[in-house]
Amino acid sequence: MTLRIYHGSIINLNVDVIVNAANTRLQHGAGVAAAIARAAGPGFQRESNAVTFCPIGEAVATTGGWLRAKHVVHVPTMDLEPWGRIAGPEDIASGARAAIRLCLELGGKSIAFPLLGAGIAGGSRKEVARTLAGVFEEYPDLDILLCAYTGADREAVAGLGPEMAEAPGT
Predict the structure, then answer these.
(1) Has residue 169 been placed in a domain?
(2) CA-to-CA dists, residue 162 to 2, 13, 147, 165, 170, angstroms
(3) Is the dihedral of CA 64, 39, 160, 117 positive or negative?
């Protein structure tokens, strides 16, 4: 496994696949989803709308639009409905595995993850980081970046892998 920790925005990365912490309806209105959607361009939300729904614990792919990444894989961490379900550690692990499988099916060799479910969904950053690191160990041949955008993210991922301050491939 090649797990590296990147300190910065996921949208700047030159990887094959970027993972989006989505909601089940793929409406990219806030958090990392909104940042990815803005950077990917106006067609990105239209493409997501065509998918219509993805359950928590699963993943679905769209193109990367204007991003350097060829694809964005959406992993829902919360139901969009009011008082909807929020992903727990098992859901996050299942979604991460589904994202990696999609990356490999799409021919990807590199993938970047945010701390799924640790932003707007409110999951524990440390628990999410540990859960993801455990999943990543199952894929030794894939280049995996775990993005730590905020100071709290950086604390949560400390010690999980080599840390980088500059985006690879820029």
Answers:
(1) no
(2) 9, 16, 12, 10, 18
(3) negative
Are the C-beta atoms of residues 139 and 1 closer than 8 Å to each other? Answer: yes
Q: Tell me the backbone φ, ψ of residue 4, rounded to 5 degrees.
A: -130, 150
Number of domains in the chain: 1
Query: What is the reported pTM?
Result: 0.93
Q: Is 165 exposed, middle or buried (0-12, 13-18, 19+ CB in 10 A)?
A: exposed
Query: What does the pLDDT look like over 64-98, one tens digit per residue?
Result: 999 999 999 999 999 977 668 889 999 999 999 99
Domain that holds residue 54: 2-164
Q: Is 170 part of any domain?
A: no
Structural tokens at position 49:
């709308």
Q: Residue 16 sits in a domain of what CATH number?
A: 3.40.220.10
Phi, psi values for residue 17, rounded to 5°: -135, 135
Residue appearing with tokens 């793929």: 26
